[in-house]
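Objective 1.3, modelling of assemblies. Example input:
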Amino acid sequence: MAGAGGGNDIQWCFSQVKGAVDDDVAEADIISTVEFNYSGELLATGDKGGRVVIFQQEQENKIQSHSRGEYNVYSTFQSHEPEFDYLKSLEIEEKINKIRWLPQKNAAQFLLSTNDKTIKLWKISERDKRPEGYNLKEEDGRYRDPTTVTTLRVPVFRPMDLMVEASPRRIFANAHTYHINSISINSDYETYLSADDLRINLWHLEITDRSFNIVDIKPANMEELTEVITAAEFHPNSCNTFVYSSSKGTIRLCDMRAAALCDRHSKLFEEPEDPSNRSFFSEIISSISDVKFSHSGRYMMTRDYLSVKIWDLNMENRPVETYQVHEYLRSKLCSLYENDCIFDKFECCWNGSDSVVMTGSYNNFFRMFDRNTKRDITLEASRENNKPRTVLKPRKVCASGKRKKDEISVDSLDFNKKILHTAWHPKENIIAVATTNNLYIFQDKVN
Amino acid sequence: MLSKGLKRKREEEEEKEEGLSVDSWWLDQSHPAVSQTPPAAASSSLFDLSVLKLHHSLRQSEPDLRHLVLVVNTLRRIQASMEPATALPPVPTPPTAPSVADSLLASSDAGLSASMASLLEDLNHIEDLNQVPEPQADEGPPGRSVGGVPANLGALDLLGPATGCLLDDGLEGLFEDIDTSMYDSELWVPASEGLKPGPENGLAKEQTPELDEAELDYLMDVLVGTQALERPPGPGR
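Predicted structure (tokens):
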């Protein structure tokens, strides 16, 4: 079902929106990451205030099968607090940079969340029963005088209102000098990597006082620094393989079996620069902001400022597919450089069947590209037309010339409304799209 | 130079305001000056904008490395395209620099490389903070760049192209027209100690000329191979 018919044959409908309504955005509420868990039943968001909010999908109502279950708040907790590094006199931001779920092994759920410096493993567990009928304790916890006990009874579990508790199980700290941009769980489900601007570390989920450094691109002399790591991810199937992307538009694939320190890549993916598009900003727009393997593990997708590229892992010299996200911005790069928008880091994601890819843009627009039909669509996350099951109307940006009705001109785009974080349900056509401080959930039209 | 003692958020707000208050006339295609501007001048404007961004980035207590690296690399591209076409703007005689913008423009080239070098040198020691303190005065911006009269200026003529570092091959061109009298002026006062009493110029970047002189100092020391890092802070601190 997932991906059937592709991005365009699907009619996307508004389902829900979470977050404050008013235009005045509280800084702490800015959403910084969005992630579905392995089953898609849970959807986690992290924000600039260091909080994690988890939504749970309602079980489908078989009678009212016109829509899939809604997502409602399941758990909210403060993952990271602002810290002060006394040694360097620096504040460490509590903003959650990434959340990654672990596959479920028992009744509890586990996720990793990270800020700039510290990764935490959280356990989210449910409690819906509690023991009652102790012999030596009253119900309120006070101890009974043993001499008043005349009969014995066996305590029993009685149902209670569902309580969802989040508790930190591991804290992985003090391993990153620079800002963590990525975490990725290995397919062995025992180890994970964390990447900052210059280094990548490998951790065991059980061990917090040690990590292995597997990539280090820090030059001996920082004056020679010209490139940083921008994203990293483990291969979904091959537990010895991972990739990392750079600010120069390259992706390196490394095999941990080759050496302890994976400074030498096994493969280097780089597309030669198009000479006709060369400008002062060529490097900045080639900087890769996100890299994601396909579910199959055969492809990987990268996002740079203007495009999304799909790479076949067997071909290093160029991507197999390239999709232009907002090519109309190419003539505006100077302005975007001036207002720093050119440094925005957009993420991208695959649908469950790897047939459609999605990424965000400005003006609260987001784009989907169907790899099979080669068609694409632009949609908007907005509170207008937010009745459930309202089909979203495709949007179009007019690059130049006469603006048709319903088109929006490039100069009218709101560059403060950026969609940086999007996520696709692993099995169904349900997507989560984060605007600055709101989370939109869209579904395909059922029936 | 690096205001490490200040809280990042508040400083970010302040610096954002400073950094983005640039008049962007050069981006307005309908502006007569822009449409008639030869490409060299447009590059120069972009250069100045990039320098401003770099200064803004440098003033963060913990700079965003990606942003910094991208801006620096872009600056190098622009710089490379500008020479040998553009003439160097003359270095003003501080501290009577008439305005912030002018002094930035004029000292940007010289100050740029020195700023980048100093910052990245600082970054070298982020990790070393946990270890034995360096014998050099690297604990902060003031210690390093202060000094007396610098070494032989003539040594600059012997500069060869730099080897792959940010102090680029354009260095010779940068220092050609320097008025050496600037080295006789007052020593630099660190930013955190407030503004020097000076001319009626209330702008926050008044100390930039001194800043760049001192960095130039350091730069020259490095280039001529005399790492005079242990110099005690001079008067004015």
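Chain A has one domain: 39-114+174-444.
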